[in-house]
Amino acid sequence: MNANASTGPKDATSPLSQSSPTSPPHPANDHQTLQSGSGLDEYAGMEEHSGDSGLQGFERSDAEARRPPFVLTRAEVKLLGIAGVGFFLDAYDLFIINPVSTMLQYRLYGGAPLPSGLAGLLKAAANIGSVIGQFLFGYLADALGRRAIYGKELLLIIFATILCLTTPTGSLSPTSSLIYLSIFRILLGVGVGADYPMSASVSSERVSTRKRGVMLAYVFSAQGWGSLVGALVVIIVLLCYSGEKNNDIAGGEDVGWVDGVWRICVGLSLVPAVGTLYQRLTLPEARRWREARGDDVAGDGTDGAEKGDVVGDGEKEKKALGGGKGGKRIDGDGADDDVEAQRNRPSSTSTSTSQELEQDHDAGVDGDLDSDGTHARLRGQRGVGEGEVGGGKGGKVSVRRKGAHFREFLTYFSEWRHAKILIGTSVCWFLLDVAFYGINLNQNVVLQQIGFDGSSGTPWTRLLKIGVGNVIVTALGFVPGYYVSVLTIEYLGRKFIQIQGFLMTALFLGILAGKFHTLSTAAFVVNFAFLQFFFNFGANTTTYCYPAEVFPTRFRASAHGLSAASGKAGAIISALAFNSLSESVGTPVVLWIFFGCSLAGACFTLLLPEVKGRDPDVVDREEMRAAAAARKGVV
């Protein structure tokens, strides 16, 4: 079957339709084609289109092309709502534990601090579960498909949240109550962690390359709103219990009302989870994943609208890379150097690659890996050559076997050029989360410095003051940083934002560490606000975006899950070690450790390419094509 059969109508005046099959591509025309005709950058199934709309041939209107990338269409807003709720819950559930742990002090320990070991476990529990969920669900999403997995993580979050609410604080000992709650927060963390690779993959595969970074940054910015809403919820619920504000535990009065406050605060997270569950469970499979798997998308008798596919950059690239007329490759203006170097390759390469695969089949070569892993990767990938692997017109050969994805994953990352990128995304995320969660899971230290630690008054007064302090900290720098990233990510690029973010957080951590005991309250607030701002206008956003943009579709969720799990490992270390280290060596020393982590993160970012305008599937196919050509030369 000719690959052009799946591409739909083309503009008769486009450079793609005028090129001869053997003429080399022209970079200028490639750029023009990408900018003027990269397709409809919405994922289908979210908006209704007429039957003769020709989705697969749709080209973005001039108005859409001129629209800034951070201006979303209605369909993209809906996608943001579906994917963003996971990160809203991530922040809400992970950071609500700070005020909840303070409430449990009064409920279980008469106002005394929680035992340091149990306090660390309670705060680290969700992150421990996240490590499991990120890697497990990331792998399953690549192996089984996004549709088979997406929504299941939300079911797990709902189930675990309900179990957390059942903590029998009145019938168990304080220690047993904290262990009980921690166990189910680990389960909660599995669901929260699973959302990282799932939502990243779903979002990046349903928008055009032009808007991919913006959409990912928008999705991740929901984390800031989760933190802010969590702090506001604590204040609102406390105000509903204002009748208890004069009850003092020192006078022997009952503080059982605290049980109601923390359960309401935790339970309200069920509202957005249940509200988006149906949309996640019914979200169709993405065209990009089906093509990467090798499914015959053109021959399934449906168009993109019925399958919920994106018809954007990926469709044009399929025309260019799948043996279409002219065989021209389309790339973004931010393409990596190794792809730029291949712009002058004659398009006959794609035809020769297809012929080579057919010769291998005729010779009786099966779908197993060669010594370099090239053969199975080529034959398991659609969009190479003319899109068919088989012994003639009559049929195709199924080359994917059980365990094939895992073998392909290991083979792909056994090459240094790929492994160094995975090392870069994983180590940068690890170093970021050591500092980021070390600060944000232990905000009581910060609140103490600005006078909102709730060190005096009745339990109600103290909890309200802590809630107000959390709102101040979140609103000053947490939320604004996300949206500066949204506005600038497609202009400044991911690499620049990540490096400057690491360097600026190092600067403000150094100031806080060196002047921790001498800064005035106003100066401390300003420095801490800037620290939070550059966490989010920096590595906290880009470490999430990078794995979703730099790795090809067939490994995207697995690699994203592994990178995110590395980050959560850093968060676990901070949660468990921060309190004990602060008590033994002092908070300034811990801040100096975070300073060193930030500097190291800037260095490891140098391992990563810039991904603005770069389609990893284009890069992947070019690499496979080059490997096939080299292999043919050896043979």
Automatic annotation (TrEMBL):
| Protein name per Swiss-Prot or TrEMBL | MFS general substrate transporter
Where is it chiefly localized? membrane
Gene Ontology, cellular component aspect: membrane
Start and end residues of each stretch annotated as Disordered: 1-57, 293-396
- Gene3D superfamilies found in the cross-reference section: MFS general substrate transporter like domains
Q: Which PROSITE patterns match?
A: MFS, SUGAR_TRANSPORT_1
Q: Where is the composition biased (Gly residues)?
A: 382-395
Q: Where in the cell is it found?
A: Membrane
- Give the UniProt keywords, A-Z: Membrane, Transmembrane, Transmembrane helix
Regions crossing the membrane: 77-97, 117-141, 153-172, 178-196, 216-241, 261-278, 421-439, 463-484, 590-608
CDD domains given in the database record? MFS_PhT (cd17364)
Bilayer topology annotation: Multi-pass membrane protein
Q: Where is the composition biased (Basic and acidic residues)?
A: 304-320
Q: Which domain of life is it from?
A: Eukaryota
Q: Domain Major facilitator superfamily (MFS) profile: where?
A: 79-613
Please tell me the species this chain comes from. Schizopora paradoxa
What GO molecular function annotations does the UniProt record carry, in alphabetical order?
Answer: transmembrane transporter activity
Does the keyword Transit peptide belong to this entry? no
